[in-house]
Every structure is written in structure tokens, then in C-alpha cells.
């Protein structure tokens, strides 16, 4: 990993981003790898992050991002 | 006429919202999305449970599932299945509220991997926090009377005690505890989990429970659509029986046909 970058884990897979990256950058990178998603919600290190703050939420090296989507449930 | 009126008034009210169906159905474990939709239709359910999971777009079919669920027009009841702490459940509930645009949450906090028994302490803590954040909490709980009291005090307007552990299909394992809860609480009570057959659902309704929530018993039936219809009938039958009032059980037999005027009576007494 370069010194001016940070590494985050999104749904158990590692991604490298710029040090200044925000959550919205991580989500864009994730979608560029996995495909576009419309309905999802997000948490960083187990804490819910409201959609309205995606563009302002800073990331730290080692952050663990969970992206969840609707599934069948009982 | 009055009989028809009585039937029409028998709606289920949860957090101020009225429903005609007393059957809450889960949306997991079906062989196909279409089978799930057909089962929902056959069940008459107006409330569907669903969950949130990590899912990359190339794996699974989240968007299609979501569109299909929305097409039912049913009220959505997201769950916090799999959470093992209050913190996990609270955060998943917040994620659910954002995605599903509802403040209803089926609150599950599991305390044991073997029987998926709710953790009463974490459940109560999560319920208190979520109610403070304006959620309508429907807690999946055990049949423990004190836990139910605490959940009511926390502000839960609905309680959902288990009949038996999730997915076991064993019916109402602790009738004494469940009857006690029914007698002690006048809030809506929904039997959630553990029901395997329509007769068990009917049993729960005859005891006075207000509704039934299940998933596996329908989804894993050989014919889920027919089973959904069967549960619907059983739940309605049990509800009607409860409202009609069951007869008292007796130890000794009592003939239903009048004994006065019984022919040949003298012949028996003379022998």
C-alpha cells in the first residue's frame, strides 16, 4: 500500500483509496468493481452512516465498511 | 346482521395501523421469488418480514427481490436477524429504516447459537434505545413473563413471544407461560417462530393470541402455496373460535342428546 493511500475493507474485500477519500469514493469504487446498486445502506466499523453524510464522511486506514441490501427474512 | 358487523370489526391493530389478516409471513427459504410471491398471495398476509445482508451486486438478486416485495403492497417488517448484541441490532435497525423507509422493526437479538434463543438483556437494551429513536419495536422474545413486562414498560406496544425455537416446527412448547402472558397483557401478542403446522397456529389463536408470524413452515412445505392457504384458514378458524368462546373442559362425560324420553330406559333399569 502506498503512503498516500489507505486501505479499507468493503464486505470482506480490500480496496485501496487516496488518503483524502470519503465514503462516497469508496462506494463508487466498490460499485465500479461489483456493479451499480440502488438500494443499500452502509455502516463503518459497525456504526450506521446515514446516506446524507456519504460525501462528508472521512475514511481511515483499516476501516471496515458494511454494505447491506434487502434479502428474504423471517 | 349483527353477526356480520362483528366479523367486520375484527381487525388487528399494530402501532395504530389496522390489518384484516392475522398472518405475518416471512420471505426467506422459498425455492424461487415467484413461489414466494404466490405464497404471499395465498396467505392473505398484509405484513411481510425481510432482512438485510451483505450482498455484492454480482451475487444474488437484491434489486429484483426488492422490487418484487414492493409489488405486493404489503407492510414491511424488517428484522434484525442474526444480531447478537444491542449495538448490532440498533445499527441494523437504523440501516433498515433508511432502506425500507419504515420505523417498524422486528427486533431480534440472539443469545444462543444452538436454539437461537433471544438474549433478554440485550433485547431490552436495544428496545429502549430504538424506542427513544422513534422506532415501533416488535420484539421477538421468549415467553418469560418478566421480560415481557420490561419490554412493555420500555414502550413496546406489541410483543412477539416464541412458540418454540426458530425453524423447529414444534408448536407451543410452554402453554402455561404463553397462557399467563395472554392473561396478563392486553396489548397485541403475536406468536413468532416455532410453528410447524396449521393446527399449531390454530392452537395459538384459540389461546387468544392476536396473530401468528412464521416462515419455514410455509417455505419448506412440499407445496408452499397450498400450505400458505392452509395456515390462513387455520389462523382464521382459531381466531373465530377464540372469539366464539370455547366450552369448558370436563373430566366426566356428559351426553349431548337429551336423556329424558330415552326409549327402552325401563328395560335397562329392570335388568
UniProtKB/TrEMBL annotation, chain A:
Descriptive protein name: Sulfur carrier protein ThiS
Taxon lineage: Bacteria, Pseudomonadati, Pseudomonadota, Gammaproteobacteria, Cellvibrionales
InterPro entries listed in its UniProt record: Beta-grasp_dom_sf (IPR012675), Mopterin_synth/thiamin_S_b (IPR016155), Thi_S (IPR010035), ThiS/MoaD-like (IPR003749)
Pfam families, per database record: ThiS
Organism of provenance: Gilvimarinus gilvus
UniProtKB/TrEMBL annotation, chain B:
CDD domains per UniProt: ThiG (cd04728)
Entry keyword set: Cytoplasm, Schiff base, Thiamine biosynthesis, Transferase
Annotated compartments: Cytoplasm
GO molecular function, one term: thiazole synthase activity
Active site: 106 (schiff-base intermediate with dxp)
Pathway field: Cofactor biosynthesis; thiamine diphosphate biosynthesis
Disordered: annotated segments: 250-271
Biased composition range(s): Polar residues: 250-260
Domain annotation Thiazole synthase ThiG: ranges: 14-258
EC number: 2.8.1.10
Catalyses which reaction(s): [ThiS sulfur-carrier protein]-C-terminal-Gly-aminoethanethioate + 2-iminoacetate + 1-deoxy-D-xylulose 5-phosphate = [ThiS sulfur-carrier protein]-C-terminal Gly-Gly + 2-[(2R,5Z)-2-carboxy-4-methylthiazol-5(2H)-ylidene]ethyl phosphate + 2 H2O + H(+)
Residue positions binding 1-deoxy-D-xylulose 5-phosphate: 167, 193-194, 215-216
Main localization, broad class: cytoplasm
HAMAP family, per the entry: ThiG
Family label: Belongs to the ThiG family.
Function: Catalyzes the rearrangement of 1-deoxy-D-xylulose 5-phosphate (DXP) to produce the thiazole phosphate moiety of thiamine. Sulfur is provided by the thiocarboxylate moiety of the carrier protein ThiS. In vitro, sulfur can be provided by H(2)S.
Assembly and interaction partners: Homotetramer. Forms heterodimers with either ThiH or ThiS.
Protein name in the entry: Thiazole synthase
UniProt organism field: Gilvimarinus gilvus
Lineage of the species this protein comes from: Bacteria, Pseudomonadati, Pseudomonadota, Gammaproteobacteria, Cellvibrionales
Designated gene of the protein: thiG
Amino acid at each position: 500500500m502506498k503512503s498516500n493511500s489507505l486501505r479499507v475493507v468493503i464486505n470482506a474485500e480490500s480496496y485501496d483509496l487516496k488518503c483524502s477519500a470519503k465514503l462516497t469514493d469508496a462506494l463508487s469504487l466498490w460499485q465500479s468493481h461489483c456493479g451499480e446498486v440502488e438500494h443499500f445502506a452502509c455502516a463503518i466499523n459497525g456504526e450506521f452512516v446515514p446516506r446524507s453524510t456519504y460525501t462528508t464522511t472521512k475514511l481511515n486506514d483499516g476501516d471496515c465498511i458494511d454494505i447491506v441490501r434487502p434479502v428474504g427474512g423471517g | 346482521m349483527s353477526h356480520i358487523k362483528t366479523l367486520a370489526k375484527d381487525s388487528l391493530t399494530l402501532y395504530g395501523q389496522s390489518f384484516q389478516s392475522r398472518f405475518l409471513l416471512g420471505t426467506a427459504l422459498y425455492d424461487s421469488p415467484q413461489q414466494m410471491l404466490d405464497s404471499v398471495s395465498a396467505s392473505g398476509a398484509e405484513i411481510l418480514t425481510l432482512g438485510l445482508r451483505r450482498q455484492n451486486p454480482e451475487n444474488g438478486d437484491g434489486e429484483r427481490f426488492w422490487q418484487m416485495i414492493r409489488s405486493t403492497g404489503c407492510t414491511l417488517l424488517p428484522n434484525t436477524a442474526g444480531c447478537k448484541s444491542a449495538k448490532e441490532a440498533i445499527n441494523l435497525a437504523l440501516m433498515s429504516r433508511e432502506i425500507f423507509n419504515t420505523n417498524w422493526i422486528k427486533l431480534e437479538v440472539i443469545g444462543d447459537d444452538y436454539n437461537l434463543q433471544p438474549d433478554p438483556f440485550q433485547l431490552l437494551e436495544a428496545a429502549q434505545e430504538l424506542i427513544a429513536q422513534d422506532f415501533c419495536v416488535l420484539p421477538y422474545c421468549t415467553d418469560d413473563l418478566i421480560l415481557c413486562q420490561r419490554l412493555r414498560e420500555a414502550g413496546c406496544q406489541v410483543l412477539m413471544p416464541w412458540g418454540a425455537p426458530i425453524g423447529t416446527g414444534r408448536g407451543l412448547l410452554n402453554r402455561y407461560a404463553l397462557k399467563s402472558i395472554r392473561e396478563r397483557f392486553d396489548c397485541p401478542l403475536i406468536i413468532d417462530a416455532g410453528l410447524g403446522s396449521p393446527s399449531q397456529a390454530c392452537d395459538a389463536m384459540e389461546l387468544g393470541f392476536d396473530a401468528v408470524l412464521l416462515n419455514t413452515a410455509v417455505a419448506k412445505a412440499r407445496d408452499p402455496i397450498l400450505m400458505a392457504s392452509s395456515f390462513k384458514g387455520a389462523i382464521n378458524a382459531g381466531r373465530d373460535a377464540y372469539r366464539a368462546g370455547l366450552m369448558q373442559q370436563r373430566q366426566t362425560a356428559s351426553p349431548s342428546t337429551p336423556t329424558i324420553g330415552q326409549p327402552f330406559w325401563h328395560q335397562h333399569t329392570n335388568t
